[in-house]
Amino acid sequence: MIFSNKRIIIPLLIVVALLFPFIVPNQYYIYIMTLSFIWIIAVYGLNIVAGYTGYLSLAHAGFFAIGAYSMGILTTKVEMGFWLAFILSPIITMIIGLFIGLFALRTKEHFFAIYTLCVGYIIYLVIDKWESLTGGVRGLIGIPPLPNIGPIELSDPIYRYYFVLLILLLSIFVIYRIINSLVGRTFTAIRNSENLALALGISTTVNKLLAFVLSTFFAGLAGVLYAVFIRFLGPEISSTIIMFDLLTFLIVGGIGTFAGPVVGTLLIVWVSQSLQFLEEYRMLVFGPILTLMIIFSPYGIVGLFKNISAKRKVKKVKVPIETEKGA
């Protein structure tokens, strides 16, 4: 199957992404695809901690908002240089994530999920009520757009599209190297059996904290890109609805799979665009879909394809063996 051959499918997807503005020269669709790339980065961050260590963080939308608001506050109120603020904002998010993780990871399983859900709501309340800093319900406006880099005008939607795509590809490359390193294998060992990982001498506390901090960094990076792309921020970007969206993207695509964030995000975003008339009822539409996906395909669409591919390989191995016995 072509879908199981990484050497074919990965370069093919990159080529399609590079040619997309020429294949679909529609400004609105380019806007949607650029926004999708930003969400994919955030979902990859969530996948590090939820998919590879098995700890479901429900504060991810809050960290996304911290990255976005850090960028907005540093550029509009502190009047810091754009690129310095661009670099510092994900780091600020990561530092806050470190302090929260030190307490959150004292809990396990569903207690961790409940704790992070409360943290996410606290972040939402801080953004909503601290009007002097965040603008409260009025929001934060006047965030500067991406500045030009030499002759490259990043204010142009197509150049902005390629800039976000470049950040996405770099993020995917870094996450791929992490997941396929010894550190990534320790994350998977913790997910499979934390007690066994402890018995093997793995410092589960340190590795869980590392996964959590890395997840907040990519959430903050996505938030920064969102801030300079939309240029207006409101408390709703840290709400439970955004958290539900990120979780839906991950579960539909395939939690704990490397391609899951890309598949789930692009599929749900474009399906949502086709069903805009159901916007008010999106929770009623995607809620049952999410439930059915968890029951019948817990590893999402990518996991389903992997299972089908694995079964085909088993059948191909069995047929020659049975033929040899018959002979």
TrEMBL record:
The keyword Cell membrane applies. It is found in: Cell membrane. The chain crosses the membrane at residues 7-24, 30-49, 56-74, 80-104, 111-127, 161-179, 209-234, 246-271, 283-305. CDD domains: TM_PBP1_LivM_like. InterPro entries: ABC_transp_permease, LivM-like. The keyword Chloroplast does not apply. It holds the Pfam family BPD_transp_2. Keywords: Cell membrane, Membrane, Transmembrane, Transmembrane helix. PANTHER family: HIGH-AFFINITY BRANCHED-CHAIN AMINO ACID TRANSPORT PROTEIN BRAE, HIGH-AFFINITY BRANCHED-CHAIN AMINO ACID TRANSPORT SYSTEM PERMEASE. It comes from the Bacteria. This is Branched-chain amino acid ABC transporter permease. It is a multi-pass membrane protein.
